[in-house]
Amino acid sequence: MNQEIISRQELSRWLESLLPAHTIIAPVHREDRDAFAIIGSAGEVAWDAGRTANPAKEFFFPASETIVRWRTGPAGLQVEAPLATRPQVLFGARPCDGMALDVLDRLLLADPADPYYRARRAATTVVAWACGGEGPGAGPFEGCFCETVGGGPADRRFVDVLLTRYGDDYAVDAVTEKGRQLLSGAKTEPRELPALTPRDTPELPMPPPAAWRAQFDAAFWTELAQRCLGCRTCTYDCPVCYCFDARDRALPDGTIERLRCWDSCQGMQCFAIAGGHNPRPTQASRQRQRYMHKFLYYPEREGVALCVGCGRCVVDCPVNIDIREVIAAIAAAERVPA
Amino acid sequence: MNDNPFLPALARLAEIRDLATGIKLFRCEFIDKGAELHYRPGQFGFLSAIGVGESPFGLAVSAARSGGLAEFAVQRIGTVTDALHELQPGDLVGVRGPMGNCFPMDQLKGDRRIIILGGGIGLAPLRPVIQEILDHRDEYGPLELFCAARSPELLVFREEFAEWGAAPRTTMHVTVDKGNEGWTGQVGLITQVLAQVAPSPGNAVAITCGPPIMIKFVLKELDRLGFAPEQVIMTLESKMKCGLGKCGRCNVGDQYICQDGPVFRYDQVREFLEAF
């Protein structure tokens, strides 16, 4: 297969040339894990990184951000909404990280669009690494199951550039016009390369929405909740969990800010309203909400699962609750006649 | 006007009225006249105590009677409502809205009997419906109002009951769970009064709002009286942080209270009603 190839050295040089005008987010090595982080030089890129511990969500939808600011000026109280506009490049994302953006776009860009997410999304170019190339960190990774939710290790649909690793070189697939423009300053050369054999992954079929609906009152959720600590790790580590809270704070200079922060359906207070009523008072009802949101409500509203199969929640859950087991359990229940 | 749906419009508190113990009515006059809300009965808005936070409240007056002001009934019950209750006339607040769907006023028109059951501050989002019906009395059928509260001090819009009860083809039932020394009216739960009056379900529609526990038992009683789920309309509340279908908390099944509601027919949400 004849393909455009770019060397790692040239990729580094290219990234360095983008740095003055772009915020670049890339996988870096931390003490005990790989993580997406804003880099200050191309030398920080961890080229053999595996799946990052954190999803790229925070660079589009920060854990905490100011959405409204009130200042008292000569003309009285002024209200403003700060929007991020600096161009950014998400480099070294995986196809599932790109798919996560598509999943979030469906909700957050739908009319009326979330202006904060929209600004960051529009300012971002996604340069992804395919899973399944040749070399360390190629993937697949522990717990991941992108095919179950309609993705794939070399899925190019939701990224601007897809790079496939061949040792120290990368095959370049400039998917979008945005990607082609960003790549215009990079030197590539054509070369004959073997097609990669698709990886072999265990099959995990996704039960249809009706199968999830049928289990709404199942005892299964209570059993799951008996293990769940309500620690919320699964939701914060999820590339597509988007629920948020909002509250105001006053700064010493009199400025008032409204912050929105990630929230989690696994927290006891997430659904509680003033006065004490809580429509989901038990961990079982909140576990059910998590999975029903992902595999029933979101698909019915937005056409896709609220899950990209990245497996982060699988490896991070302290009590080994495995979203794949939940999917399998619903599938198994479907096969048993009621 | 702005195109950022998270940005509240600034409004001045033109009037603050005591409605009941711990419940005030806030009438908000927009600084920018272009920010006035155009809404239908049942829709809601967010009211900000700037510096503390914002919460959703039903718009408590019909647009026709609003004079261009947004009107919210607020019970002092948490952080934001505490802060709102500290405000004085003339103070600034933030308002976002209108949001959500509305009561199907057109479907209520004709000769259908309309039964409205409001408990506590749950009467507030029903008030625009009542006003709309009274202002176009000929277009609607008989109206039967059930207004309830835990105690006489918690009955909202009491001074308007005389107007409501005096309207043609309109019956009022006012009850409190527990009376006090000055109370000469009915004592009993709204469900008990409903059972006594026993309105026939024929050609009728019931509309209810109140605390979740009240709605739960009103639904049961209506069912016992023979009302089909399709004949029962309710307006629901939930924790909400955006009103735009984005914050992920107000779903009942796959429907968002903020966008697909807050007004639902019972049959639309029965399957997923975790709230009760």
Explain what you see:
- The complex is a heterodimer of chains A (338) and B (276).
- Chain A has 338 residues and is α+β, with helices and mostly antiparallel strands.
- Chain A folds into two domains: 2-192, no CATH class; 209-335, no CATH class.
- Chain A has helices spanning 8-18, 95-108, 115-122, 177-183, 209-214, 220-227, 233-236, 283-302, 312-316, 323-335; strands spanning 2-7, 23-29, 34-38, 64-73, 76-80, 88-93, 124-129, 161-166, 169-174, 189-192, 244-250, 256-262.
- Chain A has an eight-stranded mixed β-sheet with strand order 3-2-6-7-8-9-1-10. A four-stranded antiparallel β-sheet of chain A has the order 5-4-12-11, with no helix packed on it.
- In chain A, helix 6 crosses helix 8.
- The model of chain A has no long low-confidence stretch (mean pLDDT 93).
- In chain B, a hairpin with a 3-residue loop joins strand 3 (44-49) and strand 4.
- Chain B folds into two domains: 9-98, Translation factors (Elongation Factor Tu (Ef-tu), domain 3, Beta Barrel), CATH 2.40.30; 105-235, Rossmann fold (3-Layer(aba) Sandwich).
- With 276 residues, chain B is of the alpha/beta class.
- Chain B has helices at 63-66, 79-86, 105-108, 127-135, 161-166, 190-197, 212-224, 266-269; strands at residues 9-20, 23-30, 44-49, 53-58, 70-75, 92-99, 113-119, 143-149, 170-176, 186-187, 204-209, 232-235, 251-252, 255-256, 263-265.
- Classes of the chains: A alpha+beta (338), B alpha/beta (276).
- Chain A binds chain B through residues 67-68, 70, 77, 79, 81, 107-108, 110, 112, 114-116, 216, 242-250, 256, 258, 260, 263, 265, 270-275, 277, 279-280, 285, 289, 292-293, 296-297, 300-301, and chain B through 2-8, 10, 48-55, 75, 77-81, 92, 94, 211-212, 237-239, 241-242, 244-249, 251, 253-254, 271-272, 274-275.
